[in-house]
Amino acid sequence: MKTKFIFAALLACTVFGTNAQNAQDEHNGKTILQVFGNFHSGFGSQRDDRGFELERSYLGYEYSFGKSLSVKGVMDIGASTDDYERIAYIKNAQISYKTGRLTLNGGLISTTQFNMQEKFWGYRYVMKSFQDLYKFGSSADLGLSATYRFADWISADAIIVNGEGYKMEQTDDGLLYGLGATINPFKGLTLRVYGGINEGVEDGEENTVNYAMFAGYRNNLFSIAAEYNILQNAKFKDNHDQYGLSIYGSLKLDKNCEIYARYDDLSSKDDWNEAKDESAVMAGAQFKLGKNVKIAPNIRVIMPKADGSDEKCMGYISCYFGL
Questions:
Q1: pLDDT digits over 254-268, tens only?
Q2: Rounded CA gap, 137 and 205, in Å?
Q3: What is the rounded CA–CA span in Å between residue 30 and residue 47?
Q4: CATH number of the domain that residue 279 is part of
Q5: Residue 183 in contact with residue 173, Cβ under 8 Å?
Q6: Range of 23's domain?
């Protein structure tokens, strides 16, 4: 079934066509260009794992027709499963409408499950946020979302999407439903809760349920945050539950330099996923080489929980270029 990709491609063409037809009105348009790359090397028993890597590239365009209506199309170019070739996907092909306190999004949209956590983390080009890294959900999907801001300090959001992400076709009739609420009690502090259900429709499948809780504080000098995530019936299998804690923060040394650190812990109910359960620590620094270029050397230590598994220590120099 090619419906998802046909729809997304048509909407993307509309976005870029709008750009061409309105070139004279440049202040309403925004080019999206992001490139993530790195050089990495293992230490000890991992020393043979090294090389240069082009992790991901985003190319797109966003155009606003005024205060209310805007469109966005983004291509995601990343590695294949075996990393022998690059594969391009349409990640976003969406229409957004804002009126008063209400925002509506439709098409191939960004999901709400961990979008805010990813933005708060702020180093997506260095490492994915927890739920994205450990596949608790997808960052984009085909469907609808709505956000309503009741006051300056509280908002709620709802989403309904296919539930299979932006890289897969819709192969069954199940949908994903999600509800979230974000609270900003005072300047700098953000609290968020989210719950979602991804329907299992085949015989023997259970609904996959996701819960996410987040608290973060940011000011001009530092940021610190923690999130706790629960995934029940992972892969639609009964009692295949996973739990994840992520703590991260950053400290600005000057306008062009900051340091950051993060701790992740992934576990599973009755150790059903013990082979992939792990704790991980990473720390590094970010240097801005102008407005659009960032370099971030960092060290990562991964500690598998399976008996007999060795720790893995890696050094990275992560790079970012964007417009």
A1: 999 999 999 999 999
A2: 17
A3: 42
A4: 2.40.160.10
A5: no
A6: 3-322
